[in-house]
Write a structure and sequence with these properties.
heterodimer, A: mainly alpha, 2 domains, 69% helix, disordered N terminus, B: mainly alpha, binds protoporphyrin IX containing FE, binds iron/sulfur cluster
Chain lengths: 305, 90
Amino acid sequence: MTRTSARPPIQAGYPMLGSHGSRAQWLARLTALGIGICLIYPLYLYLHSDDIAPDSAWGYGFAICGTALLILVGVSYSVRKRLNRHAPIRLHTMLAWHAVGGVVGVLLIVLHSAGNFNARSGTYALYGLLAVALSGIIGRLIDRLCPRLATAAAAQAMTEAGEDRLYALEQKLEAAQQLQHARRRARRPRKANMPWDLAYHTLDPENDAIPGLLTHETMSGTGFVPTRAWRYVGSHTAQLLPHQRPFADYLHQQTTLTRAAMGREQFYLHMVRVWRRVHVLLCVAALGLLIWHLTYAAMLLLDAR
Amino acid sequence: MHYATPQLMEELTACIACSECLLACPALAEAIPIKALNWETLHGPLSPDIARFAQRCYQCGACVPVCPVGLHRDAMMLWLKVRLLLGPDS
Ligand code: HEM
Ligand code: SF4
Ligand code: SF4
């Protein structure tokens, strides 16, 4: 990787509500808007006619178009995502049409219901579909917000050099302890035949050594957080010398802040993925209700003959 | 979960540039050369198309199971997002 980028730097940043929709998203939205505008007049005629009912000709029309559209957007996106990854249409484009088609499909089903909530199966199926569409819309908001919050939290849990803060201070403490060992060894008179076995010395900061490492020399200006040191400090607060207390407090504060940042990062990232499952689960439940309603409607039609 | 520099370098070095992660991504709106993405994840200023992609990535994780080498493009993208957040000098 030796490519040098001659392109201009971007000052885009990562604003909380930034990034406009893509071309594919706008195309899908504008197409839906165009179709909606074209349907205003026929809708006006329907809403002023004498036959506003789910089982009117218009009602059936809305039901068939809405159901077909919903099945199309759900199935086409899932198939493209799982089975057809090398298809020429981008998954992003499919998702844009999925979202717009989902909203339009549910609106068509709302028109099919025509404010008639007598049939239990139909009402539940309608609520199910509304819940799916609503979860999709909320999901898109979560997709926008949560990654941004997770990024802010990740930035807090890292040092400026891109190190994990907790890990970085442990490294720093280890280095400080090695230095301390080396100084002690240098001061100690060397006996004849004493082996220079460096592997004998553990590289981990031992608990006993941690208070000694809580000095200005080790801690100042690092912005690092030691997990093991903090665990020690937490259980031996009474044994700390007065000059070690400011650093112990600093450790406490930094560890707490970093742990909280890491927890927040995990939470926001999980939120995106968990909500996706909620959307799919609601979709499965709505499909069940839809099948129930279609069976019920089919039986009514057969009985009427 | 975010990566530290050594993990990120390791993954970027192991990437075989097959672009499977990009094909599986529902946030990618325009074509991006995978080598440019890998390069700019760590070095230099971000080009507009890659910055836009980093803004649009919503951390869904769909890029992870498709990677033949078992890499975590989502974590690499989170790194890019941190770079976006901290500004062009990061
Ligand atoms: C009622 C109509 C809808 C149905 C039946 C439906 C169905 C589905 C299904 C089955 C999936 C799973 C796809 C997969 O992972 O294979 C899905 C995913 C998704 N849907 Fe919907 N959906 C509907 C409406 C919406 C709406 C209105 C939106 C947004 C405004 C939306 C946004 C999404 C998103 C963001 C995903 C996940 C995309 C991904 O990360 O791969 N859906 N939907
Ligand atoms: S985590 Fe980001 S890069 Fe990976 S598939 Fe999802 S949106 Fe695309
Ligand atoms: S799928 Fe894996 S190996 Fe292929 S380009 Fe993406 S990260 Fe690299």
